[in-house]
Amino acid sequence: MNYQNHEFPDPYLWAGSTIRSILRKEEYLGHTVNFKTYKDSYKDKRRKKTPPDERVIFENTHPAIVDEETWQLVQRLIQTVRKPNKYGTINPLTGVLYCADCGAKMYHKQGTSDPAHRPHHEYVCSSYRHYSRSCTCHYIRVEVIENLILETIRNVSGYVRKNETEFMKRVIKTSAIQQEETIKESKKKYTQAKRRREEISGLIKKLYESYAADKIPEKHFTELLAGYDAEQTMLDREIDKREAALDNYNSDSVRADKFIELVKRHTEFTEFSAALLNEFIEKVIVHEAVKIDGVRTMQVDIYLNFIGKFELPESAQPKKEIPKRTSTKKLRRDMTEEELQKVRELDHKRYAKKRDARIFNEQSERAAILQGTSFETLNSKSEIKSVAS
Question: pTM score, two decimals?
């Protein structure tokens, strides 16, 4: 159909902004949302979007089209803009990996930019990549992180299937410890907000008394009152938010049963996929690599949906075989000073041999180019002088 006298070549082509606005509608959850827009005045024809916290929502007024978990997952994916690279592909790990030091999202790099034209496919910290290297690199290859995620999902899911009751107890215990720290922080901020709210009430009272006694001009009184009023409104919202969080506190709120249902929906975990990543993984924290005994080691924290970071008990952890060192060559860090001196002398001899071979090849190529020309004699004389010197 024509829209505003414009005929589209493909009537089934939906714009990305339209899809994005549709997926953000809370009506799909079975709720009725009122006061989504407003106008500054009845004379103004332009409507503005109401902030989400100021809308009025009536829950469960009609059958839901999607469940709460799927809708929340979609909102999390929408928050990250995923642009295709020069190869036309979008890596699903974008928006999932975070830097452990600065908290920024990891930046995806892919191409053959090195002098040897070798392909590279990795993630680095976006602060290091874009903002004058304010953070360190946190380099990790895509293949490595995909294998780590798949291994974590496979190990935790196997443990859940074999020890469902024990898994529930461990998750509840871990959640109680984590949320106990969160609740302490919430109580601390709640107390600070209440104290500041009382201080502002006292300041406003003194301000009115000073204004009534003509101690301050009206202009200063209006500015100070507006500032105190805005801060008081912000504190009221913060207090209501903290009170709601304290009332809803429950050690079982991590919903371990949801994760068990998720595990039961999957029969096997053979290969890494975007669907598997979005269903199981909440976020991945990548730490800076360190060298331990000459081996590059990196800590990676994987947070699962519904249960967060879950550590398997020692009895359930897969045994990792440490590869044995097959080379009998002694490392330089284990050598004595005399042994190091001998190695350095061998390095100098090896370097001198390579340099002489390079010079000989260059002179041979030059002689072959100048052969049969008037410069052949000059070139031979210069070579004789160089040899004599």
Answer: 0.61
